[in-house]
Amino acid sequence: MKSFHFLVFFALALAFSFASAFDPSPLQDFCVAIPEPKNAVFVNGKFCKNPNLTVAEDFFFWGLNVPGNTENRVGSNVTLVNVDKIPGLNTLGISLARLDFAPNGGLNPPHTHPRGTEILVVVEGTLYVGFVTSNPNRLITKVLYPGDVFVFPIGLIHFQFNIAKTNAVAFAGLSSQNPGVITIADAIFGPNPPINPDVLAKAFQLDKDEVEKLQKLFENA
Known about the structure:
five-stranded antiparallel beta sheet, 4 helices
């Protein structure tokens, strides 16, 4: 148990020390986010709280020691700690996530973060991870064990897959207060409104009825 706690603290420290900011640099010590005032002009980020009114809770989150629920169709859970969870992250260009994987195939499916690079450290279990480069596409993969670290460059499709018979846990730092996520299968087969199936049939070289089956599968996912 002590070794697990050490790895968790190591993961947190590593994630924050290695994730370099991609968001615009702040022009003050901090800018604690507040709800947008009525009829506010849109800003790239969040409106700022009066610095004199900030409290410790503006910079605090609890619960990353609690395992996420992996009883879902992909067998994984991501607990994201971004600016919506810690208002004090506003303008600081960083966020954090805990990733839990069910045994025997728990998957964080292929996805991208359009606004952030990700650095991941495994603290429990064995993960097969990888990303795909931009055209011409090349797959880069690695099997990770506790203490191993892997980087997923900003915007590239990547995944993590539990290949062991036990649970797996990892922590990730991301170089944005709000890195965003686009899960590839959901984005292609499950958007609202749906993409014209003729487009997808042509793109994936599938029969139209196969595309429509996939769309039906993902529309309520």
